[in-house]
TrEMBL record:
GO CC terms in record: plasma membrane
UniProt-recorded name of the protein: Ionotropic receptor 25a
Keyword Transport among record annotations: yes
Residues at which L-glutamate binds: 513, 518, 683, 768
Keywords in alphabetical order: Cell membrane, Disulfide bond, Glycoprotein, Ion channel, Ion transport, Ligand-gated ion channel, Membrane, Receptor, Signal, Transmembrane, Transmembrane helix, Transport
SS bond list: 84-339, 780-838
Amino acid sequence: MANMFEMKFVFAIYSLYLIPITVAQTTQNINVLLVNEENNALAEKSFEVAKEYVRRNPSLGLAVDPVVVVGNRTDAKAFLENVCRKYNDMLSAKKTPHVILDFTMTGVGSETIKSFTAALALPTISGSFGQAGDLRQWRSLNANQTKFLLQVMPPADILPESIRAIVTKQDITNAAIIFDEFFVMDHKYKSLLQNIPTRHVITPVKSFNKDEIKAQLRSLRELDIVNFFVVGSLRTIKNVLDAANDNQYFGRKTAWFALSLDKGDISCGCKDATIVYMRPTPDAKSRDRLGKIKTTYSMNGEPEITSAFYFDLSLRTFLAIKSLLDSGKWPSDMKYINCDDYDGKNTPDRALDLKSAFQEVKETPAYAPFFIPEDDLINGRSYMEFNTDLTAVTIKDGASIGSKSLGSWKAGLSNPLLLTDPDNMSDYSAQLVYRIVTVEQQPFIIRDDEAPKGFKGYCIDLIEEIRQIVKFDYEISLSPDGNFGTMDENGNWNGVIKELIEKRADIGLTSLSVMAERENVVDFTVPYYDLVGITILMKLPRTPTSLFKFLTVLENDVWLSILAAYFFTSFLMWVFDKWSPYSYQNNREKYKDDEEKREFTLKECLWFCMTSLTPQGGGEAPKNLSGRLLAATWWLFGFIIIASYTANLAAFLTVSRLDTPIESLDDLSKQYKIQYAPLNGSSAMTYFERMANIEVRFYEIWKEMSLNDSLSDVERAKLAVWDYPVSDKYSKMWQAMKEAGLPNSIEEAIERVRSSKSSSEGFAWLGDATDVRYYVLTSCDLQMVGDEFSRKPYAIAVQQGSPLKDQFNNAILQLLNKRKLEKLKENWWNNNPKAIKCEKQDDQSDGISIQNIGGVFIVIFMGIGLACVTLGVEYWWYKWRKRPTIGEITQVMCGNLY
């Protein structure tokens, strides 16, 4: 008994606390027409709690007399008929409704109620979903109507706005928003992420079956979406997370966000997952009131915030109507017409300011205050201004191992996140990891196992510069077939382009040319490299060198003939001088007074003929006339030989430098000794193949024109020419290329060029100028010939419609403005560590090289060496061979004694 007494006492005190005792006042009877839909029973229950609250709090001076209508959101006709019947009954019973409480959520049924209230000018407070302009039947309200046709967005309509705050903060570029039946997102498609460069999908959960959810998630993942927002009940969140766990969609490449109005923590059977979880919390000033209302009035509906919203909306409406009635601002001549009397033009005029009365209600909210703009329209701009907690929940092996508070978000249409540490939030976003497909091509892409991504080169440095601006990570792999991308006769692609089309890659990064057919299936960024054309790679002509090249000017038999003439002439001169009676050796007395006396022995004759061939001259000539005639003949012979040798040596060295048989594509097409071809499947191959096909088509068109029987004789005569008027150069070249065989790799092409016998016979490769230039830069046996033709820019390829195009465009333009691309080109071309400083080749403007004239120095050194040997012989001959022996000295001495 004592316990029962104590309980009654406590209950009495508790009731006194909730129901303050005031002086008696007039009770206002308020007639309410509550319009609700079938799947929103929580709203009707909260309305009943608000009505009970009014009844048990006489100090409020209110008595609510409701009429409830519940309809189907899709059956607008039956819904309207039911509402009109109830409304007409109220008019007949002289219980005209002071206000319509519209708790319909969305759909044609909700819009029908809006049309009904606007047509009959019935004061209405709506809790329907929709932002500014989303309530179609209330879009064109006049100034008076906006004062009594009011809407406040429910919490389920405002919570998804936090997604915008997260996307903005995290710079998210793609998102999938999955919601359940407790949320209405129809109107969010256009407004939720408006003016934000985020590719996103908003889709309802299709089923509670795990397999179907897994299939739904796979389809979203195939769209290259890595950020997932699950908006719904805790049950829905668990089902989706479990399906994601089965699909192995947790890790650094994906980010998961869960938003719910439910109380409690999220759970799932995830093996290892971290989810950013957002849930509302009651306002600190309202927490006690909420607990008392739930305890006293059994407001136990879930979600708690939704129950509190409809409770506050109902109570606030009651108090607003009472305020108008008490203050005398409620019109005394309120005119009502029933549904049957409405003809489309007889809408009653209202001078009722329900908006101001609704704004001025000071009742303490049960969860959080309402935000109602003072100087703007209420509809689509008013909502419960609740707070949400933002936490990172870590789950391992199906159990939560902890949560970390990240901050909060205050409900609003454009409110940002309030983070405790902004840097922490970046740890819970999906790391943008793009799949890059490439083709190895130096110096743009070079395989390097020691590099962070396994590659280095111009393009790697470029993507590293871009990622500093765009913020992403990447995985890079080679094209499976090693091709850049060409289209066959059936319209099928290969190489890098195929990987992008079939969405196995996000980015095509290599020296990829921009071509019209490629632009039809993928998107290209702005060019990152200059226009690059096709040019010719050939073997560098090597001028043969020889230290004794000066000896090769004359043939061997000529040299032998000169040598024979030299010895024969020297011999004859010795004979003439010995037998002539007028020679010096035969007339010593006659020439004894001459200053120069020269006896032409065989040695002197050899010396005379040798020195006569030099600028020094032969010296004193023979005294006899026959010898002098022979010497003059030798001089003439020597002059002719030396002049001929000098002229031929200069011509010989010059002609050897002028061996440049190919200087352009036309030169290549007009010869047959050098085979030529582009790389199989390359853009150069496509160029020549298409040029040849165009020439064939032109020929067919010209032939059809010439043989057209419908032409008159005069018209046909104008087309009659002896020669075909269009060149067939490319047709012949393409045929020659096919006969030569197209190399399947750059290595094969380079090997065929290097295997050429010379620069005038062998193989020439037609390829991209950058490839040709690089191999010339890193080799000393190759040369680039001719000017570039068919020039195209290099650009980065992305999937068609990918937002990466605009992001990369901005980045590349920034790099251009900062001259970063010029620096990259400098690093990989002018300062390339593989560049070889080649020995300078002789050209026509240079002199004779040491390789060709060095033999002369060898002759000098040989002569000096021979002279040194001769000196030794002479010294030995004089010193030892001419010294008398002991026997000779004894004999001489004995002879003197006798």
